[in-house]
């Protein structure tokens, strides 16, 4: 059975609830993106992922 990978836009807190379902196995987050400069995640985004 192939697994489904879902992506949320960076710092999009409103998208987190839409992607988290009962069949979610893991969340991989990049708290600081380095492509195109240094882009840290907003604290609200990281808190939403933690919930």
Describe this protein with a few key phrases:
single chain, 51 residues
Architecture blueprint of SSEs:
Elements: H1 13-19, E1 32-33, E2 39-40, H2 43-50
Antiparallel strand pairs: 1-2
Q: Could you name the ranges where pLDDT drops below 50 across 5 or more consecutive residues?
A: none
Separation of the first and last Cα atoms: 28 Å
Tally of structural domains: 1
- Strands across the major sheet, in which order? 1-2
How much helicity do the residues have? 25-40%
Helices and strands: which structural class? alpha+beta
Order of helices and strands: HEEH
Provide an overview of this structure.
- The structure is a single chain.
- The chain is built from two helices and two strands.
- With 51 residues, it is α+β, with helices and mostly antiparallel strands.
- It has one domain (13-50).
- It has a two-stranded antiparallel ribbon.
- The longest helix has 8 residues, at 43-50.
- The mean pLDDT is 85.
Could you provide a short overview of the structure?
The chain is α+β, with helices and mostly antiparallel strands and 51 residues long. Helices cover 29% and strands 8% of the residues. It has helices spanning 13-19, 43-50, and strands at residues 32-33, 39-40.
């Amino acid at each position: 059975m192939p697994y489904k990978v879902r992506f949320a836009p960076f710092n999009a807190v409103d998208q987190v609830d839409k992607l988290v379902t009962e069949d979610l196995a893991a969340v991989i987050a990049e708290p600081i993106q380095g492509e195109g400069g240094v882009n840290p995640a907003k604290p609200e985004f990281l808190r939403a992922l933690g919930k």
